[in-house]
Structure formats: structure tokens, C-alpha cells
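[worker-b] picked up task from shared queue
[worker-b] task type: protein-ligand structure
[worker-b] ligand name resolved to zinc ion; SMILES cross-checked against name lookup, match
[worker-b] sequence length check passed
[worker-b] input payload:
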Amino acid sequence: MKFAKQLETESEEIPSEWRPYLIQYKALKKLITKVAEEIESRGLSTSLLHEVLDEEAAEDDDCVPRIRYYFTGEPPNVKPNIEFTYDSEEPKVQKVLSKLMSLQSTQEIERPKLEFRKSVNNTDFFSLSSAPLSPPLSVVSEDQVITSPGIRTQRKNSTVTLVKELLNLTLEERDRVKDTEPIVQEIQPQKHLKTLVIELEQDDEFFKMLLEELNQAALLQDVTSQKFKHDISDLESRMTKVASPTQKSDMYNWRQIFSLYMDAQIFQGHAESDREFRTVERARQQMEWFIEQLEKSNILTKLKTPESKSAFKQFIALNTELITMKHYQMLNQTAMRKILKKHDKRSGLTASQSFPEIVSTNHLFSPELAHMLYSTITNKLTTIIPQPEDYACPVCMSVAWRPIRLSCNHVFCVRCLIKAQKKGMNSCPLCRHPTAVRTATALNLDEGLQNFLKMYFPQEIKDKKRDNEREQAIEDVQAMTGKKYTEEQLMRMNQPSDSKCTIM
Ligand SMILES: [Zn+2]
Ligand SMILES: [Zn+2]
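[worker-b] inference finished, payload out:
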């Protein structure tokens, strides 16, 4: 009950038009009651099923008799089945079978029956249906035992008993195998394996409904993500304009917004240890932090054009929408997990293990969706504006003014290169290419990169140029006077001063 309540409360946080696409937890819960009732009313015990199915040993294929709960078909048409495989020649099974034969007419079992459907090869199909089914249409190879109508009636009446005996035998056999585990199994005599399959009608209904809901959810996700992608493309082209180098001041504002956005790590951390996609709660916290930082830096009022302001609003809205989408998905995923757990607990069956696999391979649930949309944001939007750290000279760590591309392809600013050459350096400090520094000349200037930097980092380059000039001037003074200045004196010289040059 707790989860049903939680689902109700949390659904308030997602848009009302999405709410009908949440898994109908309560309705499914009602169906589970029917599933359990059906199993019990057909004379099978849910607790016995639970005991036999819910064991790791159930996966041991060599163990006979064995029981399996599985799904056939492809979504949205999957059918749950219970399957028994047993050795019809095995003495214990023989005993059960002959006991059943002798029961025949004397104890015409008035208990509920399993409806015989058909036999294919060595497999008999039964249904848990309460309504009598029409006689089997295509019987591929009828089993000897069930050819005569009398025996057929007897057989279908006693199948419940057979199934129960098989359940008990399965448990016994498993205990025996467990006790004798260390002994390597001898080569088994040829087994006369037979299979008995029971189709579960109410269980079928339950999964039909669940699949239908998942299908609806998948449709909503498709539509929403298409729209989302469209919105991002739209925003991309708007941002390319509002943050272009011709809008110099807004370009800087946008750079600051994206830099804060990347720092906020809303959906995913940058560190290797923090790559996991954030929970909804954490994403919300990070988003709040982002908004706070934006407010602190007063960015919205700094944005110059109305187009910029509106693009900014859409950028925030898309991120918020992504968190909501993630929340919706998470609610559905939790609802599915919980309802399957409940199903298994009440029915004794084991859908929690096999069902999620079926839906995940069919993309009904795509946990990657939010992740994918987030990478669209980072790839398309945040890359519109280059960040200075991506173009920093590895020596002075500022934007590489007059970028020199060494023969090893690493880029340094010309000042840093000249300094390195003066110190007699030969090799590239980044890759240790032996002659890259020594052989670099003015011809290595990367003009394309220089133009690009000029366009996107006019402010940084202005600062860098001024610094370079000062540094150069100090060096000239030192060269002229032959004096070495102290750090403090250099700092003072570095201060912009009102007075004219006093060296002369
Ligand atoms: Zn540099
Ligand atoms: Zn290099």
C-alpha cells in the first residue's frame, strides 16, 4: 500500500497530461489477486510453487523433474507458462502415474480441472482456464496415453494431482542432489523425458495489461523525446545567432552561463568515479545550484538582446523538462519492479527474474533516454561557444596568443616558445618530441587558429597582448641596464601607471 500512496503523491510532480501514462499500479494489483485465486482454485498451491520455483537450483538444467516459469512470444504478445519436465520411466514418477490410473473412476475428482489443450511431440499443453475450451484443433502427435476418450478424461482430471506430485518430487530430488553434491554425476541412463505445460489465463491477463501500459509509456516517451530533440535543434540555431562573435557581449555572457552549467554537473559528474547518471533528486539539487549561481552573477539582466533572454529561458526550461522526464521514467520503472515483486509474492511465480529482460530487449523501457537527451544538450548547445581552457597554452595556461604549432602538433603561444628556446629546450614538454621546440620558427604560426581565437576570445587576447608587451618592456629594461630586478620591482613596473615613461 505504501508504494501506491507514494506513486500517487509523486505523480503530482509530473505534468498532468503524462499521468495517464503511468503504470496503473492499483488495477494491476487487483489482477494479481485474481492470478493467485486462479492458481489456488485450480488446485495448485501458490506456496508450493513459490518453494519450488524460487530457488537457484531451479536453474539447474540437469535436475529432473524440473519446473520452469517462462514467457513465450514477443511483446506485446507474451504468454506466461509453467512447464514441468519429468522422466516418465523414473520409478517414482511411474508410481505416481500408476496411482493416478487406479484412481480413475472410483474417485472421479470433483476438484477443479486443468483443461487439456494439445500435445506436441513429447509436450502436453494444459490451460488453467475455468471455461471449457473448444477441443484442440491441431494435435500434431497425440500421446499414446491420451488417445482414447476415456483415458483422456481421466488424464485431465488427474493432471492437477500429477502436477502436485511433480512439485513434491522436484523438491525431493533437489534435496537429494544437494546432499550428494560432491560426487561427480555418473553418466545418466537414457531418460524418457516428457514435458507438461500449463498456460495461465489470469496471469496472461495481468501481463497483457502490464505490457499495454508499458507500450503506452513507450509511445509517450517517443513523442516526448522527438519533441525534445526538435526543441534542442531549434534552440541550437537560435543560440548560434545570439551567442555569435558579432554579439560580443552576449557571447561572453553565454560563455559564462555554459561554464556554470558544466560546473553544475546536473545530470552526470565529470569525474570518472562519478559518471553514473544522477538520481532525480540529485539532478534537482544540482539544477537549483545552477540557478542560484546564475542569479548571483546577475546574468539574466546582463544579457543584451531579447532573443538572448528568450533563448536563455528555453535553455532552463529544457533542462527542467529533462528532469521531469527522468522522474516519470523512474516512477514507471519502480512501479514495474514493485508490481512484479508483488505478483511473485502472491502467485508463487517468478516474473521479476524473466519479465524485465523481455521488455528491455524490446525497448519498451529505455533507461538511456534521459541520458541520450542530455548528451544532445551538451553536444549541441554547450559547444556553440568555445571555452578558453580548451585553447590554453600549456605553459602559461591562458589563451595562446600567436599560436605556434610545433611539428608534433602541440600548440604554444609564441612568447612561451621563445622563452623555452632561450633556455635551450629542444623537446616538446608535452610529448617529448626530441626537436619540436628547437626547430619551431615564425613559420609555425597557425594562422587559422589565430583568426579563430581573435574572433572568439577578443577580451582574453587583448589582456594577453598587454601582458606580453609589459613583459617584453621589462626584459628590454633589464637588457639595457644589465640589472636584475626583484620580484617586487617587477610587480611595480607591471602596474599600469599614469605617468609617462620615465626610463629615458
Ligand atoms: Zn603560453
Ligand atoms: Zn608535442
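[worker-b] attaching auto-annotations
[worker-b] Residues 3 and 9 are 10 Å apart (CA to CA).
[worker-b] releasing lock
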